[in-house]
UniProtKB/TrEMBL annotation:
It comes from the Bacteria. Keywords: Membrane, Transmembrane, Transmembrane helix. Residues 158-340 form the Calcineurin-like phosphoesterase domain. The lineage of its organism: Bacteria, Bacillati, Bacillota, Clostridia, Eubacteriales. It comes from Ruminococcus bovis. One of its GO terms (molecular function) is hydrolase activity. This is Metallophosphoesterase. The keyword Membrane applies. Gene3D superfamilies: 3.60.21.10. InterPro entries: Calcineurin-like_PHP, Metallo-depent_PP-like, Metallophosphoesterase_sf. The chain crosses the membrane at residues 6-25, 37-62, 74-95, 115-134. Pfam families: Metallophos. PANTHER family: TRANSMEMBRANE PROTEIN WITH METALLOPHOSPHOESTERASE DOMAIN, TRANSMEMBRANE PROTEIN WITH METALLOPHOSPHOESTERASE DOMAIN-RELATED. Coiled coil: none annotated.
């Protein structure tokens, strides 16, 4: 249903931007008013504009789908800030003319102002997009230090590295994962936790599954790597980061099972593991798309019967049910999903929808940490947020 709304909106946005671009080019050089030249501009623009749709419609595993989806993700990133900046410029122009009555006095002044404002607009769009592209690839290290009021025999503290939202697929490949693994190992962790969205809805989109699995297997920690599923860890068509409900039960690609074995990742699907008789690690199914076709257990059902004198780490993709998990006995809740909004102004609005959209929150005796993630979804850009890994020093007393 949402697709029926988004497609006409997308068409209108592209028509608006193309119209503004055409007017700017004509004011810069009268040659662009020629019909044949405008047709060429329309065709070039149209190729980029339809690339997300072509990628969406192409069969899985084809090179055309891979290329079109990747181009579409870059295009969508550029389109977002082109729309924002062009619309702001257009609004300011109307404001100056209609409200403040500031207008140029002759044709040449109008043309000069249009060219200057157009060049300035293009420079801002280019600068923001280039920064956002670089920033999406630049993985930061965000440290946390917390204290759990429980004792672990012969262990005063441990280092847990939280990862989430790898989104391996059309946009995130070997280079980004290689950087991530290097940063993880530099932390010398005792435990690595991956809070879902490990791949991006399509196993065939993985750049090199064997190489990616081998890289992930190189993460070194005392107790190993544990993970849970996220809402993108299912077989589902995706359009510029958006998925569309089909009413069917969605499950993960079974090839991911062998992928996890090669990657030495212990997947927890509504399960709890006692690690070295010292602490528990629980992994929850996702609310929206459990990836197994099963109904997710309640917090009480998941943690029932555990020795609550031992620390309990819960990995859960979406930062939901904070009260329930705190009351059920979780000491440290590790989440992802939100991307911290990923792009401005999303990083402002995201806080309206989540009790803890990103960062740290204490809920009762439970520590909740939400990471903005390693990868991206949809548009390949990060502005106002950053990709990150989160080393957490957990002190016991």
């Amino acid at each position: 249903m949402i697709a029926l709304f988004l497609i006409p909106v997308y068409i209108v946005i592209n028509i608006y931007i193309l119209h503004r671009l055409k007017n700017f080019l004509i004011k810069c050089q009268e040659t662009f008013s020629r019909k044949w030249l405008q047709v060429i501009i329309y065709i070039i623009y149209g190729i980029f504009a339809v690339s997300p749709i072509v990628g969406f419609l192409m069969p899985y595993g084809t090179e055309t789908k891979r290329m079109a989806t990747r181009v579409g993700n870059y295009w969508f990133a550029l389109l977002i800030y082109t729309l924002i900046i062009v619309a702001i410029g257009h609004f300011l122009s109307i404001l100056l003319r209609r409200v403040f009555k500031i207008t140029p006095h002759n044709f040449f002044q109008i043309r000069k102002n249009s060219i200057i404002s157009g060049i300035l607009t293009l420079a801002i769009i280019g600068g923001v997009s280039a920064y956002g592209l670089y920033n999406a690839r630049d993985i930061k290290v965000t440290d946390y230090n917390i204290t759990v009021n429980k004792q672990v025999e012969n262990v005063k503290s441990m280092k847990v590295v939280l990862l989430a939202d790898l989104h391996m697929g059309y946009s995130i490949g070997v280079d980004q994962i290689e950087k991530m693994v290097k940063l993880v190992n530099e932390q010398k962790p005792d435990l690595v936790c991956i809070a879902g969205d490990i791949y991006d809805n399509d196993y065939n989109s993985l750049e090199d599954p064997d190489k990616l699995a081998n890289l992930l297997s190189q993460m070194k920690s005392t107790y190993g790597t544990y993970a849970c599923w996220g809402n993108h860890d299912v077989n589902q068509k995706i359009l510029a980061g958006f998925t569309f409900s089909t009413g069917k039960t969605l499950e993960h690609d079974k090839r991911m099972d062998s992928f996890f074995k090669k990657a030495k990742i212990n997947l927890l699907t509504d399960e709890v593991k006692l690690i070295d008789n010292k602490f528990y690690v629980a992994g929850r199914l996702d609310d929206e798309k459990p990836a197994t076709g099963e109904v997710k257990k309640s917090a009480d059902e998941l943690l029932k019967g555990l020795d609550k004198s031992k620390p309990i780490f819960t990995i859960y993709h979406e930062p939901n049910e904070l009260d329930e998990l705190s009351k059920a006995g979780t000491d440290v809740l590790l989440c992802g999903h939100t991307h911290d909004g990923q792009i401005f102004p999303g990083n402002i609005f995201i806080k309206l929808f989540w009790e803890n959209a990103c960062g740290y929150l204490k809920k009762g005796n439970m520590h909740n940490i939400v990471t903005s993630g390693v990868g991206i979804y949809g548009p390949y850009i990060r502005v106002g947020t950053h990709a990150e890994i989160c080393p957490i020093t957990v002190n016991f007393k």
